[in-house]
Design goal:
It contains 15 helices and 25 strands. The protein is an alpha/beta fold and 545 residues long. It has three domains: 280 residues, Metallo-beta-lactamase, Chain A, CATH 3.60.15.10; 149 residues, Metallo-hydrolase/oxidoreductase (Rossmann fold); 83 residues, Ubiquitin-like (UB roll).
Amino acid sequence: MNSKLKIIPLGGLGEVGKNMMAYEFDNQILVVDAGLMFPENDMIGVDYIIPDFEYLYDKSHQVAGIIITHGHEDHIGAIHHVVPRVPAPIFGTQLTLGLVEVKLARNGLASKADLRRVSAGETMQIGPFQVEFFHVCHSIPDAVGLAITTPAGLVVHTGDYKFDHTPVDNWPTDYAKLAELSRRGVDLLLSDSTNAERPGWTPSERVIGPALDEVIENAPGRVIIATFASLISRMQQVADAAVRHRRKLAFVGMSMVDNAKMARKLGYLIVPDETLVTVDAALKLPPSQVVLMCTGSQGEPSSIIGRLSAGTNRQFDLLPSDTVILSSHPIPGNEESISKTINRMLRLGANVIYDNLAPVHVSGHASQEEQKLMLNLVRPKYFMPIHGELRQLKRHAWLAEQMGIPRENIIVVENGQVVELEDGKLSLGERIPGGYVVVEGGSIGDADPDVMREREQLARSGIVIVNLSIDKYSNRLLENPEIITRGFVSNEDAEDILPLVRKRVVEVIHNGGLDMQKDIVDVVKTFIYNETRRKPMVFVTLTKV
């Protein structure tokens, strides 16, 4: 038997999102999580990004199981892409599998997945991997960390966690289990690095309740609360506040409605029947009696909040008396879109509350003191930070060194860099693909840098199209060149510059040349830049008659 354990980061290292880790031992593979990531600002037209899991394609028959640690999108968002290519059983807790099932059903895959429920405190043999599931406190119920045992050693994978002593579900992280694992001897700890730059402790989820109470109590009209559709704990806090202030609650948007329905069915969301109403019913009530909960806390243009801020929402508009609560932290890269969304809503007269103004959101991730506590509880021989950008991974590594782990026993890697545990020693292995796979509508593929650059250029400087009709025998113009612009200059400025562009095009044609189209493009680009200091994309269409 091969005694080497390969730790294969397919996503989530060097970035925030699209978390996916694979463990390979004795020619069998255990996959942990399958998440998505929001596109970066320069990825125009991209809906979301998923891990590059090509490594698993030819080895799909070797995948013994897929474990989902919890139900957030950065951990389950790619599962409907994975299931058709990697038909392995999927393990998760009750709520996690409920959220997975909703996502699979929405993509017509519910009947094709083998979902197997597990519980915190349970131990399960999955191929050669003995997996112990232990509860961790996060911003969603039913989150777990993993203790994975093979002949190569004991590995602890924390998942997303924090040490909240007063969680809203009264179920704190399992300190005793972490201490027990430490006594057995942990060879490698892989731990959440999201807040590695944030000193102190992450506040308890309970601080949100009083903040929501105050905002809802003082709101003159409707309260519209935006958060992630998978944030079931936040749904419960909003529902509790609605009950206390005798307001009706309506969930808005397909994902929010589906997840709330599932969570109520499984008992993770308790909302009295008399409190919960449909959107249509809520809109008929006096505004002061209504709470609407929807998506869009990241400023996504297609979300409810995004459409409300732009005045394009179909069901209802934003009113000057509305109070909007954005109950989330900005995901890195989304700060600009969130700021623009807030400003648009303020211009419409709404009162907008976000975490800089009131504690309407707290992180679900451990800050530095909690990360130190995790290191002290587990006391691993080796340490590998996961779940974060490179700067966060590096900071977490520094914290581990401060806690007494030797520098040579700390390893920082990004996606695609395989790490190997063998005979009690950790080392770097091979490199595999670990890049982006973009999803645009029904299209799935690698992010072509040239395409992304072209989209960015089009968005920044616009386009100029020169349409030519030429005699095929004499190469003479049959009519004046037609010049069309989009996103380049205003109509008024076009009246000044386009006749000059047309003149240069005619001169090129009269002068002739071996490659007329290329010559026209070069001349037009040079002229436009000299006149405007802008670089639109220039295309020439030539019809010979």
